[in-house]
Each structure stands twice: as structure tokens, then as C-alpha cells.
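A.,

Following up on our hallway conversation. C-alpha cells first:
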């Protein structure tokens, strides 16, 4: 079924590209190559988890989907009842099936099983073919993300194709039968919907529905992505709409009004906000302790590729003190000398290139100019804040390079795109001999 699924996905991709992009748009040339890279990533992912690292979550998802697939042909109505039920729901009629699936009892894992079982009906329940279909679904979100980036910076369509489609970690970890593939695809569609809603202000009803759906799916699959994305989006939306006001005094008034309103809101709901913060902080600490303890045990007892951020104090100030180290480990580690397996070595090479590119940008543009660009360009700010906040969260909690390589993939396209945007702004300013490169980028129609 693998050759059939690959031909089917590429054939549909060819038709879609021909129907949607007949006018020779320069970015359209990356549609099929981007899709092909996703398929290659899915095949490599399957090969690794079939022959090199047998087992893993992807195997469990597939095994659970196989249970639903096999019973479907015996009793379709019962499987439909299980498929649409909330995770963990059991009846006398369904318990003999659901008790075979440990991942059934958590919504964020059962959602993947639902999708895999549904796609299995079209793939003959082939592990390889189902993974290819997962990759195709993930690609739709990657393409949506790419279209947003190229609408902000049409001249960077080549660079944006590189950061969205060709980063090794994203190709590998974001293409298989995993939560990460669906969550990353949903993130791309969420960005696309929000850009339509708040920036381009078009297709409002469809975009609102798409934003709600993808935000819900991300919240169910990987809620920490939504937590990191929300503040960056708020900054982006407010800054973008403020920049559209024609008068500086109007912009200043809007900022003051917003700050006053925010302060009034915080005053009225201070108790609820404090309780909400402590609840979130407590869950974050609990998750971090769990990950750090387990991955630290694997590092010490089984020699897996772990890391440490030093002595840890689980207080707000103690956690914030690890901010630089956590961001560094997520974006720029493992270093080459820390790689102890082929998979980690690939991640180390990618991280090394990311480190060198970052240093090049800072030397070329300058630290102060780079920060000025971040704070004066809403699109760059969105990419910067999301990638930094997210990198801190996963770098602080993972404590294992193998797990970190998978957890960090949502922020990598945004961080790399931010670097290219900063470099592009700098080059435009140099070409125009402008001392303050803060003008808004041209937006494609």
C-alpha cells in the first residue's frame, strides 16, 4: 500500500496545485517539493520505528487504530459509537474493545487514534500508508503557514520554503503517525485563520470557524503550544492594527486606553487571575518535575542523551533564572560533541547551523538593531515571542535531547523565519540608506 498511497497523495497534490495556482505565482513551485519532503519524512519515520527503535508511541497509536479497524468490519455501529465518544467513555457493550486500548483513556492520545483509524479505512490499515496520509494532512497546515509568511514577505518565498518545509527536525518528527504532525498542521492553519481575521480581514466567517476548530484541536493535543502562541498572537494583532491608524496621536491614545483597560480588568479580577496563574504554574511545575525526573533517570541508568540545567528551585524566580539556559538548549543544543546516536547527531547538526545563523545575524545587523526590528515589526515580533516562549517551556521541561528534538519543532519554523525577516529588513534599510529600518513590510494581495 505504500507505493499506492504515495502516488495517490502526489497525484492529488498535482491536481490541487494545478487548480489553485495557474497564474505562475513564484511560491507555487514549492507545493509539490514540500509535499514530497513530508512524505519522505513519514517514510523515514516509519523505517526508524520499525527497524531501528522498535516500539514508541507511533506503534501504540497504530495498534490501537488496528483494534478499531478490525472490529469495524464486525460491528460498524459499535465502532462508530466508540469513535465519537469522549475518551474514557465505556459501556457494557463497548468495554471489551476499549479495555484493549490504554491510550483510549486520554483525549489527547485518543484523538490521534481516531484519525489513524479513519485513515486506515483508506489505507487498508497499512502502517506506512496511514503515516503517509498523516504527512499529507500535516502538509496542508505547513502550506498554510508558508502562505502567511510569503504574504508578509513576498520576496522571501525561497527562504520561507526552506524554514517551513526543509528543517530536518520538522521533516522527521512532524510527518509521522504522531500527535506532533496533527498539532503542527493545526498551528499552521490557526496562523492562517488569524491572519485572515485580524490582519487581512477577509473570509471572516470561515476563518473564525477554522480558528476555533484548530485552537480546540491544539488545546486537546498539545495545550502548551496554545499557551506559548497566545501572548505572541495578542502582541501581533494589537501592534498590527495600531500601525494601521493614520495618526500618531490616535495610536498613542489607543495604547493608553488599552493599558488602562487592562489595568482595570486586572484590578477587578485580580483574585481570579492570581488563582488561574497559580493553577497554571502548578501544572507547569508538575509537568516539568515529571519530565525531568523520568528523563534524568533514563540518562543516568540507560545512558540516553540527557542534559541538565543545573540545580533547580521550583519557584517563579527560580524557574525564570533558567530562562537563558532553557532557550539555549532548545534552539542551539545538542552541540556536536553531545551527540551519542545518529538521530541526535542530525539534530546537533541542525542546531549548530541555527546557532551559526543566529550569530551571523547578530553580527551583521547588530544586537540593538535586531531588538528594534523585533519591537517595531509585528510579524517579526510574533515569530520572536512565540519561538522564545515556547523554546523556554520545552527546554526547561524536557531534559532529554531525543524528546526535545520532537517537542521543539513548532517553534523552529518561526524562529528561522524571524532570522530571515530581520536580515531582509536590514538589507532593505541598507539599500535605502535608512537609519531606522522599521517600516511595515509590503503585503501581498
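Then the amino acids I'd put at each of the 445 positions:
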Amino acid at each position: 500500500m505504500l507505493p499506492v498511497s504515495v502516488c495517490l497523495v502526489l497525484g492529488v497534490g498535482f491536481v490541487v496545485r494545478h487548480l489553485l495556482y495557474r497564474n505562475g505565482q513564484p511560491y507555487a513551485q514549492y507545493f509539490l517539493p514540500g509535499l514530497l519532503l513530508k512524505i519522505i519524512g513519514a517514510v523515514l519515520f516509519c523505517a526508524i520505528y520499525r527497524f531501528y527503535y522498535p516500539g514508541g508511541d507511533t506503534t501504540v497509536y497504530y495498534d490501537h487504530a488496528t483494534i478499531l479497524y478490525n472490529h469495524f468490519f464486525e460491528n460498524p455501529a459499535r465502532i462508530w459509537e466508540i469513535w465519537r465518544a469522549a475518551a474514557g467513555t465505556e459501556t457494557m457493550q463497548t468495554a471489551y474493545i476499549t479495555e484493549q486500548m490504554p491510550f483510549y483513556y486520554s483525549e489527547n492520545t485518543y484523538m490521534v487514534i481516531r484519525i489513524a483509524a479513519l485513515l486506515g479505512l483508506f489505507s487498508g490499515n497499512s502502517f506506512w500508508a496511514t503515516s503517509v496520509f498523516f504527512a499529507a494532512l500535516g502538509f496542508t497546515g505547513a502550506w498554510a503557514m508558508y502562505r502567511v509568511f510569503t504574504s508578509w514577505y513576498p520576496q522571501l518565498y525561497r527562504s520561507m520554503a526552506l524554514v517551513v518545509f526543509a528543517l530536518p527536525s520538522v521533516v522527521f518528527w512532524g510527518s509521522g503517525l504522531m500527535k506532533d504532525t496533527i498539532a503542527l498542521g493545526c498551528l499552521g492553519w490557526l496562523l492562517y485563520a488569524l491572519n485572515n481575521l485580524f490582519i487581512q480581514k477577509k473570509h471572516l466567517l470561515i476563518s473564525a470557524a477554522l480558528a476555533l476548530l484548530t485552537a480546540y484541536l491544539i488545546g486537546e493535543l498539545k495545550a502548551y503550544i496554545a499557551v506559548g502562541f497566545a501572548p505572541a498572537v495578542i502582541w501581533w494583532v494589537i501592534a498590527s492594527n495600531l500601525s494601521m491608524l493614520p495618526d500618531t496621536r490616535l495610536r498613542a491614545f489607543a495604547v493608553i486606553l488599552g493599558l488602562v483597560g487592562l489595568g482595570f480588568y486586572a484590578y477587578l479580577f485580580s483574585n481570579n487571575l492570581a488563582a488561574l496563574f497559580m493553577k497554571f504554574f502548578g501544572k507547569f511545575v508538575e509537568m516539568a518535575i515529571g519530565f525531568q525526573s523520568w528523563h534524568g533517570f533514563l540518562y543516568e541508568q540507560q545512558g540516553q542523551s540527557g542534559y541538565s540545567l543545573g540545580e533547580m528551585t521550583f519557584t517563579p524566580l527560580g524557574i525564570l533564572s533558567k530562562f537563558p539556559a532553557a532557550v539555549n538548549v532548545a534552539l542551539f543544543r545538542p552541540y556536536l560533541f553531545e551527540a551519542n546516536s545518529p538521530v541526535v547527531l542530525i539534530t546537533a547538526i541542525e542546531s549548530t547551523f541555527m546557532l551559526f545563523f543566529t550569530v551571523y545575524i547578530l553580527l551583521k545587523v547588530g544586537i540593538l538593531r535586531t531588538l528594534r526590528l523585533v519591537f517595531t515589526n509585528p510579524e517579526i515580533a510574533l515569530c520572536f515571542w512565540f519561538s522564545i516562549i515556547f523554546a523556554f517551556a520545552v527546554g526547561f521541561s524536557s531534559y532529554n535531547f531525543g524528546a526535545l528534538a520532537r517537542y521543539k519543532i513548532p517553534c523552529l519554523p518561526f524562529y528561522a523565519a524571524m532570522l530571515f525577516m530581520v536580515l531582509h529588513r536590514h538589507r532593505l534599510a541598507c539599500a535605502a540608506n535608512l537609519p531606522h529600518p522599521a517600516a511595515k513590510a509590503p503585503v501581498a494581495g
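Residues 2-177 form one domain. Curious whether your intuition agrees with the design.

B.
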